[in-house]
Amino acid sequence: MFEARRLVDKLWSYCNVLRDDGVGTIEYTEQLTYLLFLKMAHERETRSLNPEQIVPPNCSWQRLLDADGDDLEVTYRHILEDLGKQPGTLGVIFRKAQNRIQDPAKLKRLIVDLIDKENWSATGVDIKGDAYEELLSKGAEDIKSGAGQYFTPRPLIQAMVDCVQPTIKDNVVDPAAGTAGFLLAAHDFASKDAEKLTPTQREHLRDTFVHGTELVDGTARLAAMNLLLHGIGTPRGESLIDVKDSLIADPGTRHTVVLSNPPFGRKSSLTMVGADGREAREDREIERQDFSVTTSNKQLNFLQHIATILAINGRAAVVLPDNVLFEGGAGETLRRRLLRDFDLHTMLRLPTGIFYAQGVKANVLFFDKKPAGDRPWTEKLWVYDLRTNRHFTLKQDPLRRHHLDEFVNCYAPGMARSERVESERFNAFSYDELMARDKANLDITWLRDESLEDLDNLPAPEIIAREIVEDLTAALAEFEAVAAALEASSVDA
Fold first, then answer.
1. pLDDT of 89 above 70
2. Rounded to two decimals, what is the model's pTM?
């Protein structure tokens, strides 16, 4: 870990210098991605044992080392353009890539002093992978850049993976991959006994075990590079990250495990046509006959998409905001379907203050896909409340993995759910109880909020202030969504 920290400090030290030139944290991380890839490709091509050419000769690292001044900037730009036209992983990493470092002297220093002096191929996978993850985390902390929306707290990811327990027999997908945090954690979990795996199993773990889809080019390249640095995929092989909108169509493939945190925000950019025949017009029409309801709510559409791509007896863990639990209309229809046709067995109510997107109240839904049958598959929904009387902040009191230990213990991974035991924060609700609730509302609480009844037990002032800001931010987002809908309806009229 010390070596990873050294690398992070070394690379990040230059970010402040470039920020004065208008290079933000994510842009800087992107430039590091391009240059690190080229340097590691150079190391593979020049190694004495089994040299491997990764990039075309006209895109070599040596060309950057040999160039100076304006010629360096021109050479770098041409290399990025040429690599963006390549297929597979190369094309994903360099798709629409641009040089954001306009000062040739600073670009030269980044190339020569910060990257070329390290032997990245000799650096252990864990070290360079951890270093890159730390860089992404630092980038996510820059609220102004909006990078945090692609970054799920790693302790939460780890806890979700510890519950789902993916194995070498699985194929794992994230339809909203972000920087590939879920895919990395799943791969790490399944690799615990790697020394006992057969060559075929190791190949599956490297090339086909994980797959992700990401809409944003810049985020997709970070995800693809993140996987490569962790030894997942190959530089010239098929990309494990697809750059597209997951919601456009049924991809046809099915996966045994889905782990995801779909993007926050209510509106979809596409018109969805459901099996009920109704349309919600936005920018353009697409038809998803596999969707049971039509809605422009992005989270509900992602939930339907995940229901489609999950294999029979497959298992899913998905982060979803509170509105999915109580929204009427399409939301109610989907909840009733989820309870009837799937085994919705566990829900984790997440505390506030753990996401970079402010004002978010979210939950993790754990459910299994079951074959068609005459009876409802959900017998009990176990709810763990980590929200009531718990307060976290991104800086002063961030969520750590140990804060989720009790939940994971209550979940009892690998054990029959009949062996679960109720506790103060962990309660079970029967299918009949859930269906009898108004609109099948799953926004369930039972703990007494001590801050509302005990003035001596109020949270710290900064926490209260942060929660007020988060509530106002969430309300503003809702008002903006309503205003946008009204504007759209007036235009259609």
1. yes
2. 0.84
